[in-house]
């Protein structure tokens, strides 16, 4: 037990010792197994880093883009999407430069990068925003998965009982089912053991996005192009609603592009030479280009298909008619993708809390002791009581909050607004300025601060629009009684 405690407590010291040993190894020509920090050789490439980014980025956010473009119209919609993709690419390039500190030391997480470049209270603010955002994403994904599962049930009901049947279904049972599945998957100890879940999730995200795109093209071929240059017309909505919805659309698009909170962690998987920054910049360009193309296609074809009536979730707009089985496949793909996506975004939060608890109470057997459970034919399972209890409570809390506030589009908008400015724009710019010692009031410094200010205004507007949407929804809603 004492050895286990010591292992937990002295994780960093061990890394330093391994580092020292590996440096000795390097001097003796034995550097084939270890990197310069003493960790096992990283094997990531441009392709694996791009795959990680695309997996993280092309999530359920893609489904709200047709609705977002419907609020902005044929001119502003694509322009705003292009601008968001450019800002995301630019600030991601700045962030990639912050992976290594001036002395060459690696920063393994976003918080460590902020600690070594900025320090002080900003580290705490970054951590609070990052982990609050990850918590929020877990709630958003629970809501989205339940909507997709409800859609399958209703689609089959319409198919059996006819289109005139109401087929109302509560999504609460499906949130509970999703929660139970996540409790099971949350017991997987750490990030490097969920790679297979990530691959399945990535395949599923391309599946449902492609089905949505294909159905959009088919609908446009049938009914012709819809939509207008200025978006949803005043008359269909009031002037005030139009403004609020534009703000909310900005939040939805911001959410669809945000992956900065896990960029440093992805960069830490990349091998060198060439330098990690070069590889990451290439991966960022490739993945943002692929994502933007996919987003433009899905968002624009969805708007062309539905015009002002574009739904908050693209797939629900095709109704529950034939080919009903194709929509069932798409909705099942969303639910499966979100099982994996929930884990990808929750694992850093799990790791943070468990590391903090182990440092706080190193003598506690409840926190540090692993129980080995033999599984015939497989490796024995390491069960940790604290991990099991805390992760189960986390999933239960996210499920209950999801049942209380099941407003998918508004939740997505709030998440996009909360994470976009600080994590995608402010911290990358501030860290780059500090690291490169860019002089205050120089033209480069002024341009960067202006970009940050514009993005802050957009974030505040998006948050306001989404909160207004939630307030509107709350007027007509009863807790735990949402039906579709």
From TrEMBL:
What is the taxonomic lineage of the source species? Eukaryota, Viridiplantae, Streptophyta, Embryophyta, Tracheophyta
What is the name listed in the Swiss-Prot or TrEMBL entry for this protein? Amino acid transporter transmembrane domain-containing protein
Q: Which InterPro entries match?
A: AA_transpt_TM (IPR013057)
Give the record's GO biological process terms.
amino acid transport
Which family is it part of? Belongs to the amino acid/polyamine transporter 2 family. Amino acid/auxin permease (AAAP) (TC 2.A.18.2) subfamily.
Which GO terms fall under molecular function for this chain's record? symporter activity
User: Would you say which domain of life the source belongs to?
Assistant: Eukaryota
Q: Name one GO cellular component term.
A: plasma membrane
Where do the Amino acid transporter transmembrane domain residues begin and end? 42-471
Tell me where in or outside the cell this protein is found. Cell membrane
Chain segments annotated as transmembrane: 49-69, 75-96, 131-152, 194-218, 283-304, 324-345, 388-408, 414-433, 445-467
Keywords in alphabetical order, please.
Amino-acid transport, Cell membrane, Membrane, Symport, Transmembrane, Transmembrane helix, Transport
């Amino acid at each position: 037990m004492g050895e286990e405690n010591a292992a937990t407590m002295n994780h960093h010291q061990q890394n330093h010792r391994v580092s020292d040993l590996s440096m000795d190894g390097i001097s003796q020509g034995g550097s084939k197994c270890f990197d310069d920090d003493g960790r096992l050789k990283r094997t990531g490439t441009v392709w694996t880093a791009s795959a990680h980014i695309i997996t993280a980025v092309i999530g359920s956010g893609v489904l709200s883009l047709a609705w977002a473009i419907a609020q902005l119209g044929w001119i502003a919609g694509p322009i705003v999407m292009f601008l968001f993709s450019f800002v995301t690419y630019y600030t991601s390039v700045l962030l990639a430069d912050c992976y290594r500190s001036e002395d060459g030391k690696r920063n393994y997480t976003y918080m460590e990068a902020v600690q070594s470049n900025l320090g002080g209270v900003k580290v705490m603010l970054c951590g609070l925003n990052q982990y609050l955002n990850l918590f929020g994403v877990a709630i958003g994904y629970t809501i989205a998965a339940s909507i997709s599962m409800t859609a399958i049930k209703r689609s089959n009901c319409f198919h059996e009982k006819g289109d005139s049947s109401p087929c109302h279904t509560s999504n609460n049972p499906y949130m509970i089912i999703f929660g139970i599945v996540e409790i099971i998957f949350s017991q997987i100890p750490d990030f490097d053991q969920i790679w297979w879940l990530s691959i399945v999730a990535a395949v599923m995200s391309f599946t449902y996005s492609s089905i949505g795109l294909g159905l959009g093209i088919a609908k446009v071929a049938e009914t012709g192009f819809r939509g207008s240059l200025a978006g949803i017309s005043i008359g269909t909505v009031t002037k005030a609603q139009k403004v609020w919805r534009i703000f909310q659309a900005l939040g939805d698009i911001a959410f669809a592009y945000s992956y900065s909170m896990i960029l440093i962690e992805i960069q830490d998987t990349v091998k060198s030479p060439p330098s990690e920054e070069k590889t990451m910049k290439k991966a960022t360009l490739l993945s943002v280009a692929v994502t933007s193309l996919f987003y433009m296609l899905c968002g624009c074809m969805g708007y062309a298909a539905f015009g002002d009536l574009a739904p908050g979730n693209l797939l629900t707009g095709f109704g529950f008619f034939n080919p009903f089985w194709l929509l069932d496949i798409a909705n099942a793909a969303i639910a499966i993708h979100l099982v994996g996506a929930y884990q990808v975004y929750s694992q850093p939060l799990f790791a943070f809390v468990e590391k903090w608890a182990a440092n706080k109470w190193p003598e506690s057997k409840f926190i540090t002791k692993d129980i080995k459970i033999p599984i015939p034919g497989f490796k024995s399972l390491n069960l940790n009581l604290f991990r099991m209890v805390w992760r189960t409570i986390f999933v239960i809390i996210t499920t209950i909050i999801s049942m209380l506030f099941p407003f998918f589009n508004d939740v997505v908008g709030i998440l996009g607004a909360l994470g976009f400015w600080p994590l995608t724009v402010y911290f990358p710019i501030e860290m780059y300025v500090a690291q490169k010692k860019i002089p205050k009031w120089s033209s480069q410094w002024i341009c960067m601060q202006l970009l940050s200010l514009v993005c802050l205004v957009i974030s505040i507007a998006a948050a306001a629009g989404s909160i207004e949407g939630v307030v509107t929804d709350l007027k007509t809603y009863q807790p735990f009684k949402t039906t579709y």
